[in-house]
Amino acid sequence: MSTAGLHKIKEVISTLLGPNGCPWDKKQTPQSLCDYLIEECFELVEAIQENKIEDVKEELGDVFFLLLFIIQLYQDKLSLDEVLNLSAAKMIGRHPHVFGNKKIKNMDELLSMWEKIKKQELDKKKQSRSIFDSIPKNLPPLLKAYRINSKAARIGFTWPDNKSQEQKLEEEWKEWLKAKNEQTLSKMEEEFGDYLFTLTEYARRHNIKPNTALHRANQKFLLRYKKMEELAKQYNLNLDSLSPEELNQLWEKAKKEV
Known about the structure:
There is one protein chain. With 258 residues, the chain is an all-alpha fold. The chain is built from twelve helices and no strands. α8 crosses α10 (185-205) and α9 (162-182) runs antiparallel to α10 (185-205). The longest helix has 25 residues, at 210-234. It is extended and about 65 Å long. The model has no long low-confidence stretch (mean pLDDT 92).
């Protein structure tokens, strides 16, 4: 962001919050803007994943606007310079292998060092926290499961090898099947959750982010179903009246086209 661009957007925010500003904006608080910030971040992520550059620019602007808006509302307690300088100092401190003389051998050693540095930061603040406390409470469950497994692995609290982890995955699947046969909903939910959690670790071990993988699967399904609708219209068919076999035939045709 250029100095001119930053000055301009801060000027817009000041005007919106000024004596002749917008009544809606003047009613906002940092707390009331949280939902909007989450929504805009999701829209930004969607634009990035779909590689729509014009949308990325627009959504980045919306996120920056809200962040600067929140900083303005906190003007008596913090400033943009304080926020940026604090972030820069934190990143420098967490990267001694880049800004200092620390040597690392591999990615596992790097991630382990990262967690140790974060713990040292908390010790300096005299805060006793779990390594999982930094994970946002409201993070979507699949992404949260990935972060939990990732952090656990950094301190060695995971299966020793992929084969052991795969055996655990098979074990969780069998427990799910047993619960399904017993037809107790609460137990089924519990065991299915355990299986999903273990499957998330399976993905992480193979350098797959399950949240991204599931997003791609969702998009692929929706794209193919849309093609099915187009084919049905082309053949003068009503999807609601087709048999499962006919739907499957149409689905296979759609798969060949998208």
